[in-house]
Amino acid sequence: MALTLSVKLKDPEDKPLILAAEVIQAGGIIVYPTETLYGIGCSAMHRRALQRVQNLKKRAEPKPILVLVRSSEDVRQLVREIPESAGVLMKAFWPGPLTIVFPASPSVPRELTQGRGTIGIRIPSCAVCLRLLEFAGVPITSTSANLSGDSPLDTIEAMRSVLTPGIDLYLDAGTLPPSKPSTVVDVTGPSPRLLREGAIAADALQAYLPAIGVNP
Questions:
Q1: pLDDT at 216
Q2: Coil/strand/helix, residue 168
Q3: In sequence order, which ranges of the chain are alpha helices (DSSP H)?
Q4: Could you read off the pLDDT of 119-175 as tens digits, one per residue?
Q5: DSSP letter at 166?
Q6: What CA–CA distance (Å, rounded) separates 105 from 85?
Q7: Are strands 38-41 and 67-68 parallel, antiparallel or unpaired?
Q8: Using CB atoms within 10 A of its CB, is residue 14 exposed (0-12), middle (13-18) or buried (19+)?
Q9: How many CB atoms lie within 10 A of CB 77?
């Protein structure tokens, strides 16, 4: 049975996060809390772990997996360019629950992009995530901790019932406050497009990018 470690959302202790980071560095998979939902995490550069995550989600067709990073410099390692519109959004909403879809660097594993040439990235505001990223030293995946098509799960007990086996370690912060998933904006085209309205509302984005399009 996968190990479960308790963790505080605010001012988390280092020990459980160091252990979780070691699992990630070894190619393992964890479940961990973010500022929105529980996520499934592995090294974004470990191809076998990424394939395990795709299989764990039981998707009919594999989908791109978004990534958490610590800094704008980390973003530059994963993308071909940072468009001007992305720079505006990064300054306004990061750290926070905004995922930005960039043109992916050719060095990014295909298991992340699924051949689409794009990658979703965000810098989280959650203390657990930021410390975990620091200890792991690599970008970490953050797909929701549920089976594809199901509603997000909010307790470790519920996740164990559907994700086991497959998870190597759970970080348990208890039931998270109700939240929408991250908002997703695509900046790979001629103008930015809102793909999913989540924790950040469309009008908040439009205050910084009035011409942002809304995906039908």
A1: 53
A2: coil
A3: 14-25, 47-57, 72-76, 84-93, 110-113, 127-136, 156-163, 202-206
A4: 999 999 999 999 999 999 999 999 999 888 888 888 899 999 888 788 999 999 999
A5: S
A6: 18
A7: unpaired
A8: exposed
A9: 13
What does the mean pLDDT of the chain come to?
93
Q: Residue 66 in 3-state DSSP? A: coil
> Is the domain defined by 3-210 classed in CATH 3.40.50.720?
no
Tally of CB atoms within 10 A around 67:
25
Backbone angles phi, psi at 26, to 5 degrees: -85, 5
pLDDT score of 177 more than 80: yes
Contact between residue 52 and residue 29 where contact means Cβ atoms under 8 Å apart: yes
Q: What strands, in cross-sheet order, belong to the sheet with 213-214?
A: 140-141, 67-68, 118-122, 98-103, 183-186, 193-196, 213-214
- What is d(CA 7, CA 88) in angstroms, rounded to the nearest whole number? 33
176 with 139: CB under 8 angstroms? no
Report pLDDT for 58: 86
Token code pair at residue 44: 């974004």
Can you give the pLDDT at residue 131?
97
